Amino acid sequence: MQALLIVAIAIHVLAGVFWAGSTFVLARGMQVSSPSLNRAQLGAALIAIAAGAALWVLVRLPLTLPSARVLAIGAACALLAAAVQVVQTAAGRDGTPERLLGQRAAAGLLAITVISMATARYAW
């Protein structure tokens, strides 16, 4: 069980770092968008979300705990960020001002997600 938890955390963190990092770079207006980067970014989002869901099941935190509520807020923000990016990618808005706005919205949501993960254990 502990080994599974460690693997799930590692996958969640690595995928999340790529997803959030690439989003932050694109939100700054860097013109590095490409279909392959979009696929990699959305793939990392999917892996991070799936690993996060697996962690939630493995740890079984009840929502009555403040730390679980903080993590739930972060998870909701991550899901919203992924939805924004999926819509932007599906609309084919690479290199447009709308894409930049979408990346900025997703970056803000992912910043909340990262903060919630970093601070959840201290919530009371």
Structure, described:
It is a single chain. This protein has 124 residues and is an all-alpha fold. The protein has one domain (2-122). It has helices at residues 2-27, 35-59, 66-90, 97-119. Helix 1 (2-27) packs antiparallel against helix 2, helix 1 (2-27) runs antiparallel to helix 4 and helix 2 (35-59) runs antiparallel to helix 3. The longest helix has 26 residues, at 2-27. It is elongated and about 45 Å long. The two termini are 27 Å apart. The mean pLDDT is 90.
Observed structural traits:
124 residues; mainly alpha; 0% strand
Q: Which term fits the overall shape?
A: elongated
Indicate the structural class: mainly alpha
Q: Can you count the beta strands?
A: 0
Stretches with pLDDT under 50, minimum 5 residues: none
Q: What helical percentage do the residues reach? A: over 70%
Q: Oligomer, anyone?
A: single chain
Helical segment count: 4
| β-strand amount | under 5%
Q: What does the radius of gyration come to?
A: 15 Å
Straight-line N-to-C gap:
27 Å
Mean pLDDT value:
90
Present the secondary structure layout.
Layout: H1 2-27, H2 35-59, H3 66-90, H4 97-119
Helix pairs in contact: 1-2, 1-4, 2-3, 3-4
Summarize the structure.
This protein has 124 residues and is mostly helical.
